[in-house]
């Protein structure tokens, strides 16, 4: 085996795990290092911090799963930022959705992510792969915590347009945002563009849905339908039956959402990722150290 580091580079946090001969010997977590969100310089600093925390001496390979690693330019930039801290190591960067299947030791199936954003990525036994979604909050991220929160804001504004009274979902959202009145939600959305802030507001919607609030339940049902549609597109393109492995903070913290996704994928095995995705990066890094490009 070899000495490797796996990285899970997200918008909210960055996790690093160091493994030597297949055994975890160091772990660290730091701030998000998504270059689209924080820029190259800040991302490089934050990556350096988590790498230093687990130690970079004698590292043979590093694999990073990075949110938004879609274009060759982005992949090359993140790779260079990491390589600067681990001279001599082989470095590879993949889309963070790829970590999910690797984390459970699967070479085929579909990874379905619902966190701040959303995406589906899958691989077939013959090596073909496909993805759906993951285009960011302006173009997609359907079924994500961010979009659920904005759907709740849209619901509140539709009630306002109709002259309808404040309902429980609107009242809970106004309180959670710390604004005085629902009319202030519009300004609040534009004044606080941080996706992570709005993703955290989705917990209010999920909690009300679990208590039976009809508006919140409809929003969560729409999210489940959107996530299932992402998974179905990848399953169909690859011509595989499954499984679908679900990851991401929003899905993992709200079992009702997972159950609803299952209901929209009848006949398909849908399971929750049992370990952190960063362990998938470790597995891919071990392959890289052995000369196999992820």
TrEMBL record:
It holds the Pfam family BcrAD_BadFG. InterPro entries: ATPase_BadF, ATPase_NBD, Euk-type_GlcNAc_Kinase. It comes from the Bacteria. Residues 5-282 form the ATPase BadF/BadG/BcrA/BcrD type domain. This is BadF-type ATPase. It comes from Pseudonocardia thermophila.
């Amino acid at each position: 085996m070899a000495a490797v580091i796996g990285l899970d580079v997200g918008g909210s946090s960055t996790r690093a795990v160091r493994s030597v001969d297949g055994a975890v010997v160091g772990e660290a977590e730091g701030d998000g290092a998504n270059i689209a969100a924080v820029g190259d310089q800040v991302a490089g600093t934050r990556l350096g911090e988590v790498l230093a925390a687990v130690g970079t001496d004698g590292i043979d390979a590093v694999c990073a799963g990075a949110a938004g690693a879609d274009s060759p330019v982005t992949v090359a930039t993140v790779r260079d930022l990491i390589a600067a801290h681990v001279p001599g190591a082989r470095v590879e960067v993949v889309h963070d959705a790829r970590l999910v299947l690797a984390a459970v030791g699967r070479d085929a199936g579909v990874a379905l992510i619902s966190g701040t954003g959303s995406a589906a990525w899958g691989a077939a036994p013959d090596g073909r792969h496909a993805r759906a979604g993951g285009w960011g909050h302006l173009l997609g991220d359907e079924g994500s915590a961010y979009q659920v929160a904005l759907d709740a804001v849209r619901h509140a504004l539709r009630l306002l347009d109709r002259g309808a009274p404040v309902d429980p979902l609107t009242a809970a959202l106004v309180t959670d945002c710390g604004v005085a009145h629902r009319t202030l939600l519009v300004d609040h959305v534009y004044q606080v563009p941080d996706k992570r802030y709005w993703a955290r507001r989705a917990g209010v919607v999920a909690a009300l849905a679990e208590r039976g609030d009809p508006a919140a339940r409809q929003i969560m049902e729409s999210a489940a339908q959107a996530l299932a549609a992402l998974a179905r597109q990848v399953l169909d393109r690859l011509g595989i039956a499954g499984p679908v492995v679900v990851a991401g903070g929003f899905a993992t913290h709200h079992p009702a959402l997972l159950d609803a996704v299952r209901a929209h994928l009848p006949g398909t095995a849908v399971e929750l990722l049992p370990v952190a995705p960063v362990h998938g990066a470790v597995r891919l890094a071990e392959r890289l150290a052995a000369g196999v490009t992820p």
